[in-house]
Amino acid sequence: MSQAARALAVLNRQIVHCERCPRLVSWRAEVAREKRAAFRNEEYWGRPITGFGDATARVLVIGLAPAAHGGNRTGRIFTGDRSGDWLYRGLHRAGFANQPTSVSRDDGLRLRDAYVTAIVRCAPPANRPLPQERDRCASYLESEFRLLKKVKVLVALGGFAWNNILRMLSSCGQNIRPAPKFGHLKTARIGPYFLIGSYHPSQQNTFTGKLTEDMFDKVFQEARRLADSH
């Protein structure tokens, strides 16, 4: 195991045991206890979610938070829900994943040159974390970013991720003034890093056609191009 992988493992142990936000602690436990009918025979994870992927990644993909019956159930980010289906298919088509599906922590999925994480680590009610919950979680993303020393490209899945990545980069000493506005396939150069925006692969976007697989593929193609050329 590399030094980066060991350091991430230490951080992940801290994340899994986090209880900084009472509302989220209560909600994730309630969801894990009551369950969705389709998963009533499964044991829910019901704890904070860590990042997942290659410790030597050049591409860091960042979403909002785990889904109540996705990551909060399976214990892996973007796993076991429709958004995750889209994400890992896209990563697989771009050569970042060894398989196009992500259904459980032991399904054999491996990422190459990519790491997937989120702004908030617990499933929030209505998928809307409070500002103070977001702020309490911010140090985890910053710590991951500092440990993933080979990252060149950050992919923001949605405007919430975009804005909070900018906050994180500012905390890490990068000049983000004037702050670039979010947009699909919008690319911003911030110091030595590239930030790419993508509509979030939520059902709200994929079912309505606001985000198509071709549009999503272009995001990861651009991430690959930028990682390879800089």
Structural features, described:
This protein is α/β, with parallel strands linked by helices and 230 residues long. It has a single domain (3-229), classed as Uracil-DNA glycosylase-like domain (Uracil-DNA Glycosylase, subunit E), CATH 3.40.470. Helices cover 41% and strands 12% of the residues. The chain has helices at 3-16, 22-34, 71-74, 82-93, 131-147, 159-171, 203-206, 213-229; strands spanning 52-53, 59-63, 114-118, 153-157, 187-190, 193-198. Strands 1-3-2-4-6-5 form a 6-stranded mixed beta sheet, with helices on both faces. The model has no long low-confidence stretch (mean pLDDT 96).
Topology:
Blueprint: H1 3-16, H2 22-34, E1 52-53, E2 59-63, H3 71-74, H4 82-93, E3 114-118, H5 131-147, E4 153-157, H6 159-171, E5 187-190, E6 193-198, H7 203-206, H8 213-229
Parallel strand pairs: 2-3, 2-4, 4-6
Antiparallel strand pairs: 1-3, 5-6
CATH uppermost class:
Alpha Beta
**Ends distance:** 27 Å
User: What's the total number of strands?
Assistant: 6
Query: Please, what is the CATH homologous superfamily?
Result: Uracil-DNA glycosylase-like domain
Instruction: Give helix and strand order, one letter per element, not per position.
Output: HHEEHHEHEHEEHH
Mean pLDDT across all residues, rounded? 96
What would the CATH topology be? Uracil-DNA Glycosylase, subunit E
Helix content: 40-55%
Query: Structural class given helices, strands, pairing?
Result: alpha/beta
The parts where pLDDT drops under 50 for at least 5 residues are none
Query: Which of globular, elongated, flat, extended, rod-shaped describes the shape?
Result: globular
Radius of gyration: 16 Å
Count structural domains: 1
State the CATH architecture. 3-Layer(aba) Sandwich
